[in-house]
Amino acid sequence: MSYAKRYIISPYLFVLLLFCLLFCKEIQAEGSRRVCDEAGIFSQEEQQQIEDTIQKLQTETGMDFAVVSTNDAGGKSTADYADDFYEQQNIGTGDSHDGMLYLIDLDHGEIYISTEGEMMRYLTDERLDRVLDHAYEDALEKNYAQSALSVLQDTSAYIKEGIPEDQYHLSSETGQRDPYRKKGFPFLSMLFGMFAGAFAALGIFFSVRSQYRLTHETYHYPVSEKGHLALTESSDRLINQFVTHRKIPRNTSSSGSGRSANSGRTTTHRSGSGRTHGGGGRKL
Question: What are the sequence ranges of the domains in the chain?
Fold first, then answer.
């Protein structure tokens, strides 16, 4: 009797397990999506193209990317909406939430990029301006998908270019600077290398010195026998002389000087939750 019951119940258990697996898989697939088109500005093909590009960049860089559109920011500013969406949807990889989000906000007529973690090191203010400049033209012409793809491609190019040597964070609230320091070169390794180099140099020095040291302190070089002096007459005569005068104009323009001095700066701010973000936008 018990055997028959087990036989009857087993198919139901199998169907239940299969349903759970399919349902969980659907949730996982939906959670992994990084294109949220709330404003309905992307076609299905465009959305898939952006999604494929994001997945490729995630694999190549180890960081996260998202593209979002909205026509209702819920009373928030564009920057606040982007930062909050970033955090609420768990965008970003690792403990520092490395990644970026591109928002097309039709409620305020603005495009905005929010960055966090290691991405803030790559997308400095100057680089962010260039990325937005490229995306702005397409967004203004309502080529929203191409605008999003432009942001992803330009960001990928800057990641490949690397973090600028003079990169630093500048807090917009406190004015505190956080300079970039390269990882993977411990202080002890540097100290060991310095001592090893010093010992090697001293070894070469004493080896060469011992080879050229004279064996007798009373040794005298036979100057009269081996020395030779020959004097020849030589004179220089000035034939002609030309002097050219040219006025060097003074450079009074100061445009660009501040920009180059701050080429590595990333201006940061704190979101409502207290996390640190970088970012910037353009009005359409």
Answer: 35-182+263-283
